[in-house]
Amino acid sequence: MTVEDRPELVFADLGQGRTFRPFEMRVTGDLAAAYMDTVGDRNPLYFDAGAAGPGGPIAPPGLAAIYARSSYLQDHAMPSGGVLAKQEFEFLAPVRVGDTLRVQARVFESYLDDKGRRRVHFLIEAENQDGRPVTTIRLYAIWPK
Q1: Residue 34, SS3?
Q2: How many CB atoms lie within 10 A of CB 38?
Q3: How far apart are CA 4 and CA 94, in angstroms?
Q4: What is the rounded CA–CA span in Å between residue 82 and residue 30?
Q5: I need a surface site. Which of 17, 43, 58, 68 has the fewest CB within 10 A?
Q6: Could you name the CATH architecture of 3-25+59-143?
């Protein structure tokens, strides 16, 4: 299925407790480099095994926003017009270049607020290939449709 063929993820499909299928993402050196080039961050921890210490280069923490969003949009398109109200990241262990992440998203809360806006709160948890939790993300959005 191409991106253009994906159905939009609408509020009616985001009931509290909905769990999305696990999303897997391999953190490659090319992915980390592309991210670093995009944001202009050249911290040697992200590409120099000597600077990062045992375990090798650390993935840029900002990649968490990418795998968080991908975890609930892997089968859907995002409708235009939404608002990302807040994100909270809890980093539990370093994500290393070479790790394969398993990311699980679920709708923690879904409701209409007092102004009639569609509010969705996601809880997204990522673990590495060893089953070690690496990131917990709480994403708060005003959903467009």
Answers
A1: helix
A2: 10
A3: 34
A4: 30
A5: 17
A6: Roll (3.10)
| Confidence grade of residue 2 (pLDDT, cut at 50, 70, 90) | low
Two tokens, residue 29: 């050196």
Q: CB-side exposure of 68: number of CA atoms within 13 Å?
A: 25
Structure tokens given for 14: 């985001």
The Cα–Cα gap between 6 and 76 comes to 5
Let me know: does 9 contact 70? Beta carbons within 8 Å.
Answer: no
Start-to-end Cα distance in the chain: 22
pLDDT, tens only, 74-87: 999 999 999 999 99
**Above 90 in pLDDT, residue 56?**
no
Strands 133-143 and 83-91: antiparallel
Domain locations in the chain as residue ranges: 3-25+59-143
Beta-carbon contacts of 102 under 8 Å, excluding residues fewer than 6 positions away, are 22, 23, 24, 126, 127, 128, 129
